[in-house]
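Morning F.,

Quick status update on the modeling queue. The single chain you submitted on Monday has been processed. Sequence for confirmation:
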Amino acid sequence: MLHRVVITGIGALTPVGDTIPTFWQNIVAGRSGVAPITHFDASLFRTQFASELKQFNPAGSLSHADIKRTDLFTQYALIASDQAIQDSGFDFASMDPFDVGVIWGSGQGGMDVFEEQVTEYARGNGQPRFSPFFVPKLIVNMASGMISIRHGYMGINYTTVSACATSNTAIMDAFTYIRLGKAKIIVTGGSEAPITPASFGGFSAMKAMSTRNEDPTSASRPFDVQRDGFVMGEGAGALVLEEYEHAVKRGATIYGEITGAAMTADAYHMTATHPEGLGAAKAMQLALTEANLTIADVDYLNPHATSTPVGDLSEIKAVLRLTGNANTKLHISATKSITGHLMGAAGAIEAIICLLAMRDNVIPPTINTTELDPAIPQNLRIVTGEAISANVRTTMSNTFGFGGHNGIVVFQKL
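Structure tokens below.
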């Protein structure tokens, strides 16, 4: 017997808001979170801006001990997951702790501590002065471990890594475990803290990021004819996934149901998506088939759409493989234009956007897109400029990662 899986709690720590209400208000209003970098001196880099958290201070949420022994990506995970758990109204005392798990995602893990410790080692003339917290702060699975330690969840616990598809991978794994009856509740999502000199410099050297330094807020412009690369972002998104009957029995508020999820590989290139969108199209089709839907049933697609010249078009080609260029009710908006690209946390943040779009019957805008690439058919409903009201009952979230990873999740309103 397969169990139904619903979302009963959400939390967000993002460049456009550190709570769900603020985050969603700014997403709908189309307020950009992009600004010049403050984390380090970026004056010598080709790109000098990013989408940073604003005035982040973990002291109000975490103990001194937890701050000392965790990297930023874990701190982001703890704060966002706290929000989601509180939002779910979950009474842990009533549950067998082995029925509750954590499946978390991060693409890079503890980049900040890695750079700090290696730099200190180099400056110390080779003297081994590494912190005893170096490895625990660095390793990518520590966020899931710390969430379980913080709350006493003793069920399934691990971390997924699939680059920018990471948190969709985590969500679909959590969906699968609950569906198979191996857990009642799983806290899932993703966090990323990549705005460090080495990480930022690496992407800059690849010429993957926008260089619109004179006007950072307009730099992320998915599907626009003048797009020139993505904008790096940081933060975390968290979701509480729960077995449907369990959620109904306890009277939980349900944001939506996951009805389909799928992954494929492009098997094409280390960093580029398949130019014809073959893997992406297949993943979307598989997820929709599992949900017993077609693309004609989808009201809103939150695409991967990072504002890169090749990637945006390949995703459009993937969508067209499903629609056949027919005039469907599908609306598309690329919210990375607002948040920047949160990399391993992107899927979780965009899953939350899909859920809130269904709750409020609103489709947020793609900002900065003033002239669509002429290669994009005019009959595609790409929502630009301002949010629109619409009947939103079915949504789909696309994520694609370096290495050719395609992760798709389908949500439906109950």
